[in-house]
Write a structure and sequence with these properties.
Layout (H helix, E strand, L loop, with lengths): L5 E7 L4 E4 L5 E14 L6 E13 H10 L5 E14 L6 E14 L62
Parallel strand pairs: 4-6
Antiparallel strand pairs: 1-3, 1-5, 2-3, 3-4, 5-6
Length: 169
């Protein structure tokens, strides 16, 4: 059994580049940066390394990416690795590139106060941007029923005895 599956969560380094094939199918090229943070054992310092990935989205997914993704936005991609090769026209050397072909995408969080259809972005928020909660709303009190108030409409205090004719079988 073989598995070619990739999950990437990162930030876009630029807006998606959308093109159309001669047959009219949309294709989007997305550049994504992912970071890895670790503690260096020798120096005991926090280290960070960033990797850059090229993601290709086709069809309706390409249209959605072009509509909602913007530079700096957070997104999660699910897809597969694919390696392409070509001959360099100038040098004649065979070149290779490995890309992620997107099969699924999830948008990152929207900025606070953005409308539902708005594209997510990495807007910086300040203290004045944060909406303060309104004064606490007093909840209505739940009534307490005392034992002497257990008489419910339609029920008598003394239960009726059950007769054989009351049974359906």
């Amino acid at each position: 059994m073989n598995l070619n599956k990739v999950f990437l969560l990162g930030r876009l380094t630029q807006d998606p580049d959308v093109r159309s094939t001669p047959s009219g199918q949309q294709v989007a090229t997305i550049r994504l940066a992912t970071s890895r943070v670790w503690n260096d054992q020798a120096t005991h310092q926090k280290r960070e390394a960033t990797e850059f990935h090229t993601i290709i989205a086709w069809g309706r997914l390409a249209e959605i990416c072009s509509q909602y993704l913007k530079k700096g936005g957070l997104a999660l991609f699910e897809g597969r690795l694919q390696t392409r090769s070509w001959d360099d026209k100038n040098t004649g050397v065979k070149r290779y590139v490995t890309e992620i072909v997107a099969e699924n995408m999830q948008l990152g969080p929207r900025p606070y106060g953005a409308p539902a259809g708005a594209a997510p972005s990495v807007a910086s928020t300040t203290v004045s941007d944060v909406k303060r909660p309104a004064a606490p709303v007093a909840e209505p009190e739940i009534p307490v029923i005392n034992e002497d108030e257990l008489t419910i409409a339609g029920m008598e205090e003394e239960p009726k005895p059950i007769k054989d004719t009351d049974l359906p079988f």
